[in-house]
Amino acid sequence: MKEIIENSLHKAITYNEYRTLVKELLAEGKSTGPNQSDSLLNYSMLNDKRMNRLDKTSKLSEETISNINKVQAAQTWLVLTESWCGDAAQTLPVINKIAELNPNIDLKIVLRDENEALMDEFLTNGGRSIPKLIAIDSNNEVVNSWGPRPSVATKMVNDYKSEHGQLDADFKKDLQIWYNKDKGVNTQEDILSLFN
Q: 2-148+187-193 adopts what CATH topology?
């Protein structure tokens, strides 16, 4: 596991580098990842707009600011993602703002499909669900993980799947509406719970 983490850290980029990469790929008509399609491109374009908005408008609570500043031990937050992932677009800007508060936290991004060995260590119900945040200490030992979505959204997904069997376009629209109303509050609560 340590070797897998070290390999992924070697390929990791900063949040700003990730945002630049996504914009450059979009300019070429591409999304991240080996699979390219019109739908993945469209999701990536929409997510880039979401992230632009959230980078500008996301606000952290006083509780988040107070508690994240208490993190004393140096750690890396390694996040697996792809540009077409709607949950990542709604949570990564918030995670970035939290990480920026504390110099002991180093946020790094890796692409899921270029880091399958790492992803396979952090499956959700057997699936390669993203985003996945992996908190790693200075010895590259995993101290915690989070994802692929905030706890309230996870409950919404599970409830909908148990009632309807699978997620559909209507649910995905409702989920994005929830994200817009929540404004990153549930993501902040979940991230803070990793350290309490």
A: Glutaredoxin (3.40.30)
Tokens of 15: 């949040």
Q: What are the boundaries of each domain within the chain? A: 2-148+187-193
User: Can you name the residues that pair with 146 across neighbouring β-strands?
Assistant: 133
Instruction: Categorize the per-residue pLDDT at 196 as very low, low, confident or very high, splitting at 50, 70 and 90.
Output: low
Please list, residue by residue across 20-35, b when 16 or more beta carbons sit within 10 angstroms of its beta carbon and e when fewer do. Answer: eebeebbeeeebbbee
- pLDDT tens sequence across 101-124: 999 999 999 999 999 999 999 999
Alpha helices in 102-184 (DSSP H): 116-119, 151-164, 169-182
Q: How many CB atoms lie within 10 A of CB 119?
A: 21
Q: Which of 63, 60, 131 is nearest to 92 (CA)?
A: 131
